[in-house]
Every structure is written in structure tokens, then in C-alpha cells.
């Protein structure tokens, strides 16, 4: 049984560009959440998707957007990249109101 | 964004020693969770606590949900080399997925 998978593993982008990160939830899970983890810090909640809609959002600007597909997989899009967006982006999946399982993350570097 | 305060920030211990760490918040949480993160990996759930005063064990790990609902504690007994990693507490309010993470405690074991 595959756990949460994320792609790509690493990514390097230039300031001002746009990026799309992808996540496949653990089998049987219907809810996906995204977190940003800066170096040396704990993860920060970006948003949660359930039934293809954004249900909860953390303190992140509109440059951060997402999507959930009918098969429960999800994308995180970040527009107009800033140097400060460099971080590990974690996807977590769950059944709604149950505990979350995290993927290995995508390491984004903005230069 | 908000992060919970964890202490100690890092610690060196001898193999076989017991370890204690704690997490404090200025606000109340209804759920407390403890995760461990290894390098290059996403956080892995260790223990979940749902009720004030609750004491829960998972093997050599024991965690407690503080009575005030503003703190939690994690103890590791008889530490072994594979306990090395960063331990994060996380709190949740209500039924959504948003987790607020702590600043992390880095555990290093001396052989």
C-alpha cells in the first residue's frame, strides 16, 4: 500500500516564475493538506482540500493556490515566486477529521 | 505564522537514557500530536492525544495532554540510536485539518 507520494523531489526556479507541485494521497484517503517548512522550522499550514474544494486556509497570500482532482490527488501552485518561498513543501493526506500522513516533500529552491 | 514553543531546542543524550521534552502554547488546543522527522523525510505521527489530562503510550514513548490544554509533554525511555531526529509537537483546534507545529526538538544520541 503506497503512502503519500509527491513530485518532483527537488526543484529550482527563478524569482518571478510559477511552480506546480503534485501530491497523490495514501490509498483510501480523501483529504489533502499542504504545508510549507522553512529550514530549521516546523511546518506551516497552507490549505486543506476536501471534495475538490478549499476548506481551510492558513496565513498565505493568494499567490498560493491549489486544486484537488476527482481521484483525490492535488496540486499546489505558487505564482510570482519570491526568494522567501524557498522551502520544503509537504503534502499530508487523511480521511476527513482523522489524522494526517505526510509525504516526503518537495524541496523548492528559488534563486 | 504562529509556532508553538518547544524545549529543549536540542539535546545530546547517552544511549539508554530517558528523554523528556515539552511544548507550550499561548492558546488552547483540542488535540495534541507528536511527530518525528528524519532528514529528507516528512513528519511521522508518533502519538495523538484528544483529551485534557490524557496519558498515552506507544512503545517506549509516552505523551501527556496538559490539563490547561495549552501544553503537552513527550517522554522517551531507554533511548536508542534510531531515536535520533527532530521531534515536533502540533496542536489542532476544532475538526479541521489545520495543524500548528512547534519549533522542534533535535535529539542526538551519543553511543
Structure description:
- The complex is a heterodimer of chains A (about 110) and B (about 110).
- By secondary structure, chain A is mostly beta strands.
- In chain A, about 0% of the residues lie in helices and about 50% in strands.
- Chain A contains no helices and 11 strands.
- In chain A, strands 2, 4, 5, 6, 9, 10 and 11 form a 7-stranded mixed β-sheet that branches.
- In chain A, a hairpin with a 6-residue loop joins strand 4 (about 30-35) and strand 5 (about 45-50).
- The radius of gyration of chain A is 13 Å and the shape is globular.
- Chain A starts with a strand and ends with a strand.
- With about 110 residues, chain B is mainly beta.
- Helix content of chain B is about 0%, strand content about 50%.
- In chain B, strands 2, 4, 5, 9, 10 and 11 form a 6-stranded mixed β-sheet that branches.
- Chain B is globular and about 40 Å long.
- At the A-B interface, strand 4, strand 5, strand 9 and strand 10 of A face strand 5 and strand 10 of B.
Q: What is the element layout, followed by pairings?
A:
The complex is a heterodimer of chains A (111) and B (111).
Chain A: E1 5-7, E2 10-13, E3 19-24, E4 31-37, E5 44-50, E6 53-57, E7 64-68, E8 74-78, E9 87-94, E10 101-102, E11 106-110
Parallel strand pairs in A: 2-11
Antiparallel strand pairs in A: 1-3, 3-8, 4-5, 4-9, 5-6, 7-8, 9-10, 9-11
Chain B: E1 5-7, E2 10-14, E3 19-24, E4 31-37, E5 44-49, E6 55-58, E7 61-65, E8 71-76, E9 85-92, E10 100-101, E11 105-110
Parallel strand pairs in B: 2-11
Antiparallel strand pairs in B: 1-3, 3-8, 4-5, 4-9, 6-7, 7-8, 9-10, 9-11
